[in-house]
Prior knowledge:
This protein has eight helices and five strands. By secondary structure, it is of the alpha+beta class. The strands form two sheets. A three-stranded mixed beta sheet has the order 3-4-5. A hairpin with a 5-residue loop joins strand 1 (38-42) and strand 2 (48-53). It starts with 23 loop residues before the first helix and ends with a helix. Residues 167-171 have low confidence and may be disordered.
Amino acid sequence: MNKLLRIGAWMKRDVVAVHASTSIREVTALLVDRKVGTLPVVDEAGILIGILPITDIIHIFLPDAVSLVDDIDFVKDFGAIKKPSTRDLKQAETLVVVDIMKQPVSVEEECSMLRALLMMEKHNLQDLPVVTEGGHLVGIASRVDIGIMIGRWLVPLLDEVTLPWPQALLR
């Protein structure tokens, strides 16, 4: 398989990861500071043991916002969402990553881009950790990374193809 069609060629290698004992307060600050949407959770040896999507953090601090997603068409003003109560914030303060992390879903560097995309679809992920055969975290790939790869691969192919495009599509 062409190396450029493998996830290892397009993933980000500078991965922000956390440990199971990291506080949710620290995680929240890290997500904001590093502008990432998913944090891989690793053990002391760097082996992937879980994932923590930003949506799970949002659900802790703004549970009303998450429940409104089903009724989004009926919500006119997001100002109606109440701030978390002091009690809720104090309870969140006691949480650590292991309390809310999800089981890891990952692929190895040699995985094809198509398989990686299908794994993301199947597990409803925006970001997919990439590991070695031994499970050590080496990167993370997002849907954007895969979209860029597909675009770079398809554009030259489309340039080579001359199809009789219907005029309606060209307007």
